[in-house]
């Protein structure tokens, strides 16, 4: 049993270890972090969580050594801060890489802490937020470690769809950190300081002899606009962390619970009918339609700079979270490209995993065609969207705004998708192919045999034009109703309220013919 002097000595030792942990990489490295415009890892954690709610795990960990770890030699928290706290009153886990300690690199103990965080998040069913600012593998510890360990990637895959994962990329991340980010369900990159790459510029130079900057290699513009690996950009650490908190506000803590609701807010005062141009071929901004339907200020667009011909994002209607998938006529007329299909599929799967209803706003001329589209595998990507819809059990609502042509309309939740509601505006047109172009293909022989091919084509187009409108579709019950555009929010809200009745536990077993089933 320890006597009082021994207890006091141990308490003094505890305080010394605590001071070591919060010192991070030391004053010089912390100053350089600040000069780069970056917060340190503990400041980032404090911003993520509600005040005073964070509890750290593994404060006194250090780098791997075969001997006894001494205080003076310890690497504080071994370059990663891990623990649990509250985000808007709900539990979440964080893994924060500390660039001031060995560049936030991935070592033996560092990796052990990360793996433990993933496993705990999966067991406790809470979201996991990654504050990524790490330089990849720590060569001096892992270079002679044999076959690389895939365990933590397997655990990340098992967590996906079970509890939300957010990757916030705040520094130059290569190797392991970059792969972790790529596997998250929402990826935020900070402009100017962040990078995601399999190997940084020195590795690229050594491997293929190319000199490249980290921004051109894997900066935020590259991954948010070109590759689609990341979702949204942020200008500062503070903005990125606030964006992560906002994203989590639309989702439940895990796949066993439902999204949280908040107070209803009226939409922006928008005359929806006035948005559409009189000329059918003229574009308009679908964002204006979205803002006229959802609660004001509630729309959070996901991947706003990637595959802009389709819009995906979260919003609220009467305070309840919904996922929005909408064609954007401003870009390639809203046609479904391979990139757009991949963007939509991923978002549909995300909403389906976390019980978020889906609202589709259709204005689609079809799937993109042409040699480039075929090289990109548009057919396979488009069919993957329908596969995602097939496995989606969340309430779905389809609003046909203007065009709903061909397989593109199918991919945008066409008729037969088990929707709670399918409505069309009076401006809507439906067909397997647009009349213009479709008639030329379907009646090719008749047109070529006519004395005046151009006149024959126009006559055929006129014959079928009246049958592609919304009332013909309503007569055949491939839409439930044709509505005034300004009734859209009311009808969508009613369908969402109806669909929430399915969110209940199975009834208790009851006697059947006097015998319990």
Which descriptors would you attach to this protein?
2-enoyl-CoA Hydratase, Chain A, domain 1, 517 residues, eight-stranded mixed sheet, 2 domains, alpha/beta
Task: Provide an overview of this structure.
This protein folds into two domains: 221 residues, 2-enoyl-CoA Hydratase, Chain A, domain 1, CATH 3.90.226.10; 191 residues, 2-enoyl-CoA Hydratase, Chain A, domain 1 (Alpha-Beta Complex). The strands form three sheets. Strands 10, 11, 12, 13, 14, 15, 16 and 17 form an eight-stranded mixed β-sheet that branches. The termini are far apart. The model has no long low-confidence stretch (mean pLDDT 87). It is elongated, with a radius of gyration of 27 Å. The protein is an alpha/beta fold.
Helix content: 25-40%
Unreliably modeled segments: none
The second-level CATH architecture of the largest domain is Alpha-Beta Complex
What is the oligomer described by this structure?
Answer: single chain
CATH topology of the largest domain, which one? 2-enoyl-CoA Hydratase, Chain A, domain 1
Number of helices: 21
- The CATH C-level name of the largest domain is Alpha Beta
Integer count of domains: 2
* C-alpha Rg (nearest Å): 27 Å
- Looking at the structure, what is the overall shape? elongated
Question: Terminal Cα separation, in Å?
Answer: 61 Å
The main β sheet shows up as: 8 strands, mixed
Count of extended strands: 17
Q: Beta fraction of the residues?
A: 15-25%
Mean pLDDT figure? 87
CATH homologous superfamily caption of the largest domain: 2-enoyl-CoA Hydratase, Chain A, domain 1
Structural class: alpha/beta
InterPro entries: AccD/PCCB, AcCoA_carboxyl_beta, ClpP/crotonase-like_dom_sf, COA_CT_C, COA_CT_N
GO molecular function, one term: propionyl-CoA carboxylase activity
Protein name: Propionyl-CoA carboxylase
